[in-house]
Design brief:
227 residues; alpha/beta; Rossmann fold; 5-stranded mixed sheet; 4 helices; 5 strands; 29% strand; extended
């Protein structure tokens, strides 16, 4: 009986060690896409801008069960601020953390000197959606596949704070897709990849900012040409 107990304990220890031995851990860094202007040399003056409201005007996450928090609009605003700053054409002024900035200035016994913006960049997520598309090869005998697709479209308006005039407008859109195929019963199946939402939103905002910079560099709008 004692030998059986010892054998059972040994088998349990062996199984545990094998389980631990099969565990793997991996990590890697991922390149983050930037706007095209980030790679273009620019020596001109930077225009101070502030990002205003960025709302979700699409039907996504705005149903009767929504809690009223505009997460998609907030995410788009954060992405927009980062991409505008990366263009090297603008000094992006943060208005969301004024209370924190005031507190830190007090800690340092310094007087704040808040800078005004020459332009307000505002806009909307005008379209956003996602879907799954499936297919079967030879009536499913040779496998089946599923493609997850996310689409986003954003609109940006450049507004003069002096006259409230919309001096320039652009739109940007993007689509992201992810495919997964199962062959004759083998292969993985996956639920919807929620990271596609952020990726396609970033893509649409980048495209809009690229067009914004094109107009800026071409003199269509800038503090040099706009009163």
């Amino acid at each position: 009986m004692e030998m059986r107990t010892i054998a059972t304990a040994a088998l349990a220890a062996l199984a545990a060690s094998m389980t631990l031995g099969c565990a793997t851990e991996a990590s890697r860094t991922v390149d983050v896409p930037k706007v095209e202007a980030a790679a273009m040399p620019y020596q001109g003056p930077r225009t101070p801008v502030v990002v205003g409201r960025m709302d979700n005007r699409s039907s996504f996450m705005r149903g009767i069960f929504s809690d009223g928090v505009d997460r998609l609009g907030g995410q788009a605003k954060t992405i927009l601020m980062a991409h505008l700053q990366q263009t090297q054409r603008f000094n992006v002024l943060d208005r969301d953390n004024l209370a924190e900035a005031k507190q830190e200035a007090q800690y340092k016994a310094q007087t704040q000197s808040i800078r005004g913006a020459d332009f307000i960049v505002t806009g909307d997520v005008s379209e956003f959606g996602r879907k799954e598309v499936g297919d079967h090869q030879l009536f499913g005998l040779l496998g089946r596949g599923k493609q997850q697709i996310a689409y986003a479209k954003v609109t940006l308006n450049v507004v003069s704070p002096t006259t409230s005039e919309v001096v320039y407008s652009v739109q940007g859109a993007g689509e992201y897709s992810l495919s997964n195929r199962e062959i004759v019963g083998f292969g993985g199946t996956a639920g919807y990849d929620a990271t596609l939402n952020g990726k396609v939103l970033d893509l649409a905002v980048r495209e809009a900012v690229n067009r914004l910079v094109t107009g800026y560099d071409g003199g269509t709008w800038s503090r040099r040409t706009t009163p």
